[in-house]
Design a protein that fits this description.
Layout (H helix, E strand, L loop, with lengths): L19 E3 L6 E4 L8 E6 L8 E4 L9 E3 L8 E4 L2 E6 L8 E2 L4 E2 L6
Parallel strand pairs: 1-3
Antiparallel strand pairs: 1-2, 2-5, 3-4, 5-8, 6-7, 7-9
Length: about 110
């Protein structure tokens, strides 16, 4: 995650419910905890690693609850990381805020 995506820690009295969760600071995707609407700026919460303020993303695609949102740009063939583990690779360029799913992500589990 780049430093420009980090959000400063919030005043607990003014805390906002996160729109997505990031399991590990090295992840390239977060998981939507609500339906994400294109054109909105949303903040996600990082569960581990001390990024208290979270991460901000401008949503580019409709992203359903439970689906992945790209936290940064990914190049074709680049590893997609979730839970601090490589879960697959980008099949095309993916911009931050895009929906990451079977249309642009391939598992490496059965790679040749």
């Amino acid at each position: 995650m780049s430093i420009d995506q980090q959000v400063p820690p919030a005043d607990p009295a003014k805390a906002v419910r996160p729109a997505f969760l990031v399991h590990d600071p090295g992840d390239s995707v977060g998981i939507a905890v609500e339906d994400l609407v294109p054109g909105t700026a949303v903040v996600g919460h990082v569960l581990t690693g001390g990024l208290d303020g979270g991460v901000r993303v401008q949503v580019r695609d409709a992203i359903p609850l439970g689906h992945k949102v790209a936290l940064r740009p990914l190049q074709p063939g680049e590893a997609v990381v979730e839970y601090g583990e490589i879960i697959g690779e980008a099949t095309r360029a993916i911009e931050a805020g895009e929906h990451v799913h079977i249309h642009n992500l391939r598992s490496r589990r059965w790679a040749r």
